[in-house]
């Protein structure tokens, strides 16, 4: 079953240009990771520092493998210097209601 992960990121206002470049580099890799169906970036129309990364994965296992890979790198996220606080991630299953 596919899974959607939504990451909420809030960037420091003075870092938006650098953050956009770093997100672009990060997502270039993410989009090619096995099981990734796509990633959309949504930027809040009122607060341009608040972004949602909406990731679609073939399965929870594919998403878990991606997260394991990212955490195994042992390096701080490229995005960390630009964040105003810790990101939050929520995962959703598609309902056929």
UniProtKB/TrEMBL annotation:
It comes from Arthrobacter mobilis. InterPro entries: ABM_dom (IPR007138), Dimeric_a/b-barrel (IPR011008). PROSITE patterns: ABM (PS51725). This is Antibiotic biosynthesis monooxygenase. Keywords: Monooxygenase, Oxidoreductase. Coiled coil: none annotated. SUPFAM superfamilies: Dimeric alpha+beta barrel. Residues 3-92 form the ABM domain.
